[in-house]
């Protein structure tokens, strides 16, 4: 299986980590191992990335349920009970046979994350994904949250859409410690986690976000996609109130002479839904790997 395409290879070579990437890439497989299946069944949250089949816009969306709503139902199949809200930007994609999707299950309690990409098939109770790439990432930049509770009295508010960030949305973005980004290349999708101390993300204007790309696992799947196709989607979840902020637009990477990488994201559409996620998590213990946010 070819783990990397030309975009990822170009970034790896520019940074000088091709050998490291080759080593990490050997852990990518097509099957769901028993330890991965057990991990999935414990999760109340799954993040999914895909492109809207009508517009081509790339989005990331949260799915929630009681543990067991995500489970392995075969050596290469993950099944999900339920789906996204009807107003979610990916509602059409999740109802379309053959949609390419990427998923990430992130558990703040253990600071573990698992990624599974493949093709989607709608089912009577939700959907299934035939796995094509399955792998885990290190716990770096994941904030620990010891526990969560289900806010049984919480119901989603009215979804609000726009083409730019409001002042309140910009303040929210700059306060988060966790985000997710979906990217694409020739139909294939990746969704990854980006984390840091509050302030690691900046919203200098209603139309732009920026963040430093911290050193990671050397794979450069996200930046590799961006190098060849700028479409991207961002997801932010308020771990206390359940508010969800979704953005779609274009991203590009700036490489500094000192080796620092910075991503700039241009906002094209904004979707905000208050209380969309019925989970209330405990306060974070920030990852010791988090760098101090730059001014």
Automatic annotation (TrEMBL):
InterPro entries: Pyridox_Oxase_N, Split_barrel_FMN-bd. This is Pyridoxamine 5'-phosphate oxidase family protein. Gene3D superfamilies: Electron Transport, Fmn-binding Protein, Chain A (2.30.110.10). It comes from Streptomyces spinosisporus. Residues 165-272 form the Pyridoxamine 5'-phosphate oxidase N-terminal domain. PANTHER family: FAD-BINDING, PUTATIVE (AFU_ORTHOLOGUE AFUA_6G07600)-RELATED. Pfam families: PNPOx_N.
């Amino acid at each position: 299986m070819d783990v990397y395409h030309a975009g990822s290879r170009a970034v790896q070579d520019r940074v000088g980590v091709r050998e490291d990437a080759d080593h990490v890439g050997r852990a990518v497989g097509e099957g769901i191992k028993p330890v991965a299946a057990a991990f999935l069944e414990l999760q109340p949250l799954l993040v999914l990335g895909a492109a809207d089949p009508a517009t081509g816009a790339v989005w990331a969306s949260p799915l929630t349920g009681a543990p067991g709503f995500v489970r392995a139902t075969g050596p290469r199949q993950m099944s999900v009970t339920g789906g996204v809200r009807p107003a979610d930007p990916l509602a059409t994609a999740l109802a379309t046979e053959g949609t390419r999707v990427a998923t990430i299950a992130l558990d703040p309690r253990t600071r573990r994350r698992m990624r599974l990409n493949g093709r989607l098939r709608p089912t009577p109770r939700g959907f299934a994904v035939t796995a094509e790439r399955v792998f885990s990432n290190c716990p770096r930049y994941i904030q620990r949250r010891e526990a969560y509770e289900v806010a049984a009295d919480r119901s989603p508010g009215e979804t609000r859409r726009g083409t730019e960030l409001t002042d309140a949305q910009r303040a929210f973005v700059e306060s988060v410690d966790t985000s997710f980004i979906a990217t694409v290349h020739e139909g294939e999708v990746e969704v990854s986690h980006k984390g840091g101390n509050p302030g690691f993300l900046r919203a200098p204007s209603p139309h732009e976000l920026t963040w430093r790309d911290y050193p990671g696992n050397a794979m450069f799947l996200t930046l590799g996609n961006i190098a060849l196709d700028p479409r991207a989607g961002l997801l932010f979840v308020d771990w206390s109130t359940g508010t969800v902020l979704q953005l779609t637009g274009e991203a590009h990477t700036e490489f500094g002479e000192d080796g620092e990488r910075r991503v700039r994201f241009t906002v094209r559409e904004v979707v905000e839904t208050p209380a969309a996620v019925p989970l209330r998590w405990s306060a974070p213990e920030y990852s010791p790997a988090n760098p101090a946010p730059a001014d």
